Amino acid sequence: MTTDETSLGATIRAWRDRLSPTAVGLPAGRVRRAAGLRREELADLAGVSVDYVVRLEQGRATTPSAQVAAALARALQLDAAERDHLYRLAGLQPPSDGMISDHIPPGMQRVLTRLGDAPVAVFAADWRLLWWNRSWAVLLGDPSVLAPEERNLVRSRFPAPSDRGGLAAWPVVSENAEATDRAIVADLRRASGRYPQDARLSGLIRRTLGGNPRFARLWHSGAVGRHAEERKTIRHPVIGDITVDCDVLADPDNDLKIVIYTAIPGSEDETKLDLARVAGVTAGRF
């Protein structure tokens, strides 16, 4: 076996070739020359350019950042051992048990791609948005226009003066905003106990304590808990108000949160949600 066959580029290519389009929720489409993902499909899933994927696979780029490595691991649906191997090939230290993980296990990815048309997203322990489906982008706006560090529910609910906008591209009204905010802060405090050495988490807490008095007040109340459910009205710019139930499912092993929006079956809101999907992703931020 040559070094080329075990390089970062060759390994990414092997992982790409083994992953079928249907496994990541893409239609099989026309006949393909190979069974795996195309480079442009991997690039889209990982949020990088096609040119960068080409350079990685050709060995012209060999040191992706930890952020890009995490995105590639999610897009390629790597398990924990494969993810760690990817990090080492990239010259990076694999995430340790005491650090927040942005990795979405393959089993969870399979479930996510088979949930149908419900708007779904996955958040890390610090409420950074890691993954979303098309229906999520249709309902709330496309998060890809934000930098990764800006895709954070804590920053969205408790903005600092320098923040330019929230996770949603248009207004979202919570039925009980105070209770929701208390639950988010309590969940973040729980995460701070589990990941006391995580620099990203501690930086988020410091930044928000210093930049948002309401967060500081709730934080100093000392509550510890989880955010589980709420009811919201999304003021969609094309369809109008859509009222949905928001449920949060927790994966305790990986400390991930799956957020799902659903409308009452047979309701006007369910019809509006269907119409929003037909309308497609709408650009713009409020």
TrEMBL record:
Domain HTH cro/C1-type: from-to ranges: 32-83
PROSITE patterns for this protein: HTH_CROC1
Xref: InterPro entries: Cro/C1-type_HTH, Lambda_DNA-bd_dom_sf, MLTR_LBD
Single GO MF descriptor: DNA binding
Any Pfam family the entry gives: HTH_31
Protein name, as recorded: Helix-turn-helix transcriptional regulator
Organism of origin: Microbispora hainanensis
Lineage: Bacteria, Bacillati, Actinomycetota, Actinomycetes, Streptosporangiales
